From TrEMBL:
Domain of life: Bacteria
Entry keyword set: Amino-acid transport, Signal, Transport
Family: Belongs to the leucine-binding protein family.
Protein name stated in the entry: ABC transporter substrate-binding protein
Matches recorded under Gene3D superfamilies: 3.40.50.2300
Annotated coiled-coil segments of the chain: none
Cited InterPro entries: BCAA_transport (IPR051010), Leu-bd (IPR028081), Peripla_BP_I (IPR028082)
Domain Leucine-binding protein: 45-385
Pfam family of the protein (one): Peripla_BP_6
GO BP terms, alphabetized: amino acid transport
Amino acid sequence: MFVTLCNSLLPRNFESGGTIVRRSLIITTTILALAAGTSARADDLKVALIYGKTGPLEAYAKQTETGLQMGFEYATKGTMTLDGRKIVVITKDDQGKPDLSKAALAEAYQDDKADIAIGTTSSAAALAILPVAEENKKILIVEPAVADQITGEKWNRYIFRTARNSSQDAISNAVAIGKQGVTVATLAQDYAFGRDGVATFKEALAKTGATLAAEEYAPTSTTDFTAVGQRLFDALKDKPGRKVIWVIWAGAGNPLAKLQDMDPKRYGIELSTGGNILPALAAYKGLPGMEGATYYFYEIPKNPVNDWLVAEHQKRFNAPPDFFTAGGFAAAMSVVAAVTKAKSTDTEKLITAMEGLEFDTPKGKMVFRKDDHQALQSMYHFKVKVDPNVAWAVLEPVRELKIEDMDVPVRNKR
């Protein structure tokens, strides 16, 4: 192919004697140059990041990208190389749309020759791309989408997830607020993320002895929570003992503030939710003492990885790392640990290496469970503290909920 290319570049009367030698040298030199260039490109370790860089979850996506880059930097001690190969991150914006996400991942595997892919931000988009990984027989590390179906009924063997799943969110929150004599009502977004979260929360809450009185679901675009809030109040107001509305919500809308404006305290009703990104935690300042459980808050984990992330992020961005920064960082750490153990980017060797793999993250140890490739990890029971010198609510740790403290169900049909 290279000879044909080079011949096509030469004049037709380029022939005989010394000119033949010169022609031979030109062809040989061109072949070597092209071959060397091809080899260098092929030798890169290509990681595709599929994410909703634009769209309703863009804040989450940008944090994931920052965390991924910093995670690779930390894990490679600043060299950005692994096993002698340069790590190249290829980013593709799916805007949080399932059809765009499918096309982006297929392009990453087929055209960009990505060795491994990471993504995506929206649970709906993540569910759409699971079959693409299977069709291409390539690893997809899901980060940060959390719907249980990803490692449940829609799972396939090429899927691993560093993000926590809805079960881990729900179980940790149920443990944080659920006790005998507590009555709970839930408010969630009406799509996979919200419904999966409530379904698991109900299961976990029942084990604590608490009672679930009502479930409400609202479209992701909801901004007026008056009617849904009143229904929740009506379901709880006459119940004895402690009464709590637990909210699971991602993106815009801020139902907590709207519910708080409706004065639930007049009925003795408390609000509760999980952790969130720092801008969203600003709204928590109106809820001092609120309890819940979180995936990450920069001041909680105490380990060398988190110490480095917090210090470096503060130095570079004049702000602490956020919720999904830690997630992107964990995904990078898992890639480096997996390729190091497998000594290859061959898919089958990676699967063998990754099943049961333990790796360090800003949250401490994570483990890819062999049954469903979900990363088991710590969660944190918190109580909201208001510090006037900080723009967001401080999540004070009540206790670390370790891997062994949470019975996270396996939901696939492996």
